[in-house]
Amino acid sequence: MSESIVTQSMPRLNESAPDFQAPTTHGEKKLSDYEGKWLVLFSHPADFTPVCTTEFIAFAKAYPEFQKLNCELLGLSIDSTYSHLAWVRNIKEKFGVEIPFPIIADLSMRVANDYGMIQPGASDTSAVRAVFFIDPKGILRAMMYYPMTNGRSVAEFLRLLSAFQTSDANQVATPEGWKPGEKVIVPPPGTTEAIEKRLTENYECVDWYFCKKDI
Prior knowledge:
- By secondary structure, this protein is α+β, with helices and mostly antiparallel strands.
- It folds into 2 domains: 21-151, 3-Layer(aba) Sandwich (Glutaredoxin), CATH 3.40.30; 171-213, Antioxidant, Horf6, Chain A, domain 2, CATH 3.30.1020.
- It has 5 helices and 10 strands; from the N terminus they run E-E-E-H-E-H-E-H-E-E-H-E-H-E-E.
- It has helices spanning 50-68, 81-95, 110-114, 154-170, 192-198, and strands at 21-22, 29-30, 38-43, 71-77, 103-105, 129-134, 140-146, 184-186, 204-207, 210-213.
- Strands 5-4-3-6-7 form a 5-stranded mixed sheet, covered by helices on one side.
- A hairpin with a 2-residue loop joins strand 9 and strand 10 (210-213).
- 25% of the residues are buried.
């Protein structure tokens, strides 16, 4: 007797992010609500857990910085809306931090499955720590998966968001660890004629393929 294997489809970079409509702590939300804005959609394994609590506090404190970059935050776990509400209230009472963004209650696991947040090697019933960057046109630009045991760096997400916006606005790339105000990388030339021209342009070049500039 053959055993059928169900393969979970995974979202893909530079394609439309999986659509969703789901209940949240701020009412019903759908992907189209965020059209024209960046969206950071992130999942956590469970409410009332210590690592997740530290992450939500960090996201809440950084929320004004995300807003300055035209970006909204949206959390998700496979818990009920009532659990989310109780946890949000607990964070406010015990830590003095108000969670200003909505949290999806994904009891059906539909959104989690569409985004590949369920990793059988980690858990069949909880979403791992996943993060998805969706641009103002609804295109998935980055995704990251973390284990249950280790918290994420919210500062890195702000850095990456700034890098995306800088690259989009200036048709450049950014080097490792780039931060706003630092030099950016000019795309390498694609022809021999362009190489000769590049070496006469006012860039900071180590060689023809590796040039930086200020913006």
